[in-house]
């Protein structure tokens, strides 16, 4: 019985019929190699050209603008007479006319000595390191509950000064 050729053994690469055909094929492969290398070089160079064109003339990188509004801000510090203190508010926003100052909505001041202040609005004044409370200002200290139209807290010294009329009550001192 004759052996049947296996299908994998039947495949045979086609060979060039002549030397001229083989040389043509070699020239075609050489041209294709050069074209591929030229295309790869052009693609590689285009990346650098793209980057150079898109960064030219920009100068400094763009800066991210500082937020102008904060919700529930909290400032803490230490004063000469009141000790540690905390100033909180419902919201804070940079003042448009003087960006170093911060407008406060519903500010609240609390000192370690027990002093507390609140008002509907206020302003942190950076130049004076103070907080101005405006509106119906409530001032509570140990032994006193006061109201004023406006008051200023000097955060460095820990002093409170009311502007305008002040009303309220003082608790009687306990005798020892």
Low-confidence stretches: none
Please indicate the percent range of residues in DSSP E strands (runs of 2 or more).
Answer: 35-45%
Shape: rod-shaped
Q: Counting H and I runs of at least 4 residues, what is the number of helices?
A: 1
Mean pLDDT: 83
Count of beta strands: 11
Derived structural class: alpha+beta
> What's the main sheet like?
11 strands, antiparallel
SSE series: HEEEEEEEEEEE
In whole angstroms, how far apart are the ends? 131 Å
Specify the helix fraction band.
Answer: 10-25%
Rg calc? 41 Å
In short:
Helices cover 21% and strands 40% of the residues.
Describe this structure in words.
The chain is α+β, with helices and mostly antiparallel strands and 176 residues long. The chain is built from one helix and eleven strands. Strands 1, 2, 3, 4, 5, 6, 7, 8, 9, 10 and 11 form an eleven-stranded antiparallel β-sheet that branches.
Topology:
Blueprint: H1 19-55, E1 69-71, E2 74-79, E3 83-88, E4 91-94, E5 102-105, E6 108-111, E7 116-118, E8 121-125, E9 130-141, E10 144-154, E11 159-170
Antiparallel strand pairs: 1-4, 2-3, 3-6, 4-5, 5-8, 6-7, 7-9, 8-9, 9-10, 10-11
Keywords:
1 helix; 11-stranded antiparallel beta sheet; alpha+beta; 11 strands; 176 residues
């Amino acid at each position: 019985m004759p052996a049947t050729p296996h299908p994998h053994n039947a495949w045979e690469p086609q060979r060039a019929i002549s030397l001229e055909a083989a040389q043509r094929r070699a020239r075609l492969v050489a041209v294709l190699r050069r074209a591929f290398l030229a295309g790869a070089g052009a693609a590689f160079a285009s990346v650098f050209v793209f980057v150079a064109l898109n960064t030219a003339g920009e100068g400094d990188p763009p800066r991210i603008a500082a937020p102008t509004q904060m919700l529930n801000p909290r400032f803490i510090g230490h004063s000469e007479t009141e000790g540690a203190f905390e100033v909180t508010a419902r919201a804070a926003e940079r003042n448009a006319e003087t960006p170093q100052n911060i407008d406060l909505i519903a500010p609240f001041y609390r000192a370690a000595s027990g002093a507390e202040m609140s008002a509907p609005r206020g302003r942190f004044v950076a130049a004076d390191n103070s907080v101005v409370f405006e509106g119906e200002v409530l001032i509570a200290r140990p032994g006193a509950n006061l109201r004023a139209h406006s008051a200023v807290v000097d955060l460095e010294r820990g002093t409170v000064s009311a502007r305008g009329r002040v009303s309220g009550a003082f608790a009687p001192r306990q005798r020892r």
